[in-house]
Amino acid sequence: PSETGRVLSIQSHTVQGYVGNKSAVFPLQLLGYDVDPINSVQFSNHTGYPTFKGQVLNGQQLGDLIAGLEENNLLYYTHLLTGYIGSVSFLNAVLEVVHKLRSVNPKLTYVCDPVMGDDGKLYVPTELVAIYREKVVPVASMLTPNQFEAELLTGFRIVTEKDGREACNILHASGPSKVVITSINMEGNLLLIGSHQKEKGHSPDQFKIVMPKIPAYFTGTGDLMTALLLGWSNKYPDNLDKAAELAVSSLQALLQRTLADYVKVGFAPQSSSLEIRLVQSQDDIRHPEVKYKAERY
Ligand code: ADP
Ligand code: PLP
Ligand code: ZN
Fold first, then answer.
1. Predicted structure pTM score
2. ipTM, 2 dp
3. Nearest-atom index, ligand 1, CA of 218
4. Which of 64, 144, 180, 202 is the 20 to 30 Å CA partner of 211?
5. How many CA atoms lie less than 13 Å away from 1 in the CB half-sphere?
6. Mean pLDDT in each 10-residue stretch from start to end of the chain (297 residues)?
7. Is the CB–ligand 2 distance for residue 47 below 6 Å?
8. Closest ligand 1 atom to 145 CA
């Protein structure tokens, strides 16, 4: 497959370490995409460290950058990718970007990671939840929530696999044809559930991928996962299961390398969040060996 595209990626930037654009831009470039990053924040390091310093872009400033592109006829994109968004005004500005990009390219694919929290903890202002649910999800082409985010968006508790599939159905009904719940905690394993509704109103093709849970905490993995899903699902537009196998296999190889590198220097992996070994894993990103298989329902 050689299908590529031009991606506008609106995410965080960290000087040191890999979250947001720092973990999404390089892998997409490796997969052959032109990527234009807009840094929604510029922080010294990610928020998993004791402190951080830096700047936050506001909705007006995002609008300025988009206006500059527009003045020069540079608003043609095949994909829009968004991740962590910290304020109501910025999320509303992103919605305007979606509409503007779609007016230039009606076939724009909008890949949205609705970053709101994890493990029952919300890390964005509460008001954002309703805006995601009512305005953002309806315009997204592909959505990649984690378990908690899927629960917030559907108001539906996910306990069993069946619940995960039902949450996907609810999300399809409000907009996106592709939904990937990137991880559901289940008996020491992580479960990814993917769902592709090929025609509106029809029942979706669904699958799961089971991954062993590594006893360590990583940051930037959700952002990397969404970028890889964008990259591969565009190359295999009718095989979300295959795209997910490739994305998961790259990510798991990278996590194993990350873990091994920390253990090598005598670091206890549970003690704090680990920086992913992104650059060192470029071969696993370009040519993943598929070790994690999708099981269709
Ligand atoms: P987020 O960071 O957005 O909450 P997830 O926790 O779902 O996203 O992580 C994204 C992907 O990263 C998962 O699909 C899984 O492949 C991988 N991953 C993250 N943490 C672990 C872990 N501790 N063990 C195994 N895989 C992990
Ligand atoms: N953006 C910033 C600035 C962060 O600090 C973090 C996590 O610490 C993230 C995004 C999201 O990381 P993840 O992909 O692990 O959800
Ligand atoms: Zn996330």
1. 0.96
2. 0.95
3. 20
4. 202
5. 20
6. 88 96 98 98 90 95 98 98 95 98 98 96 95 98 98 96 98 97 94 97 96 91 98 98 98 95 76 84 98 97
7. yes
8. 3
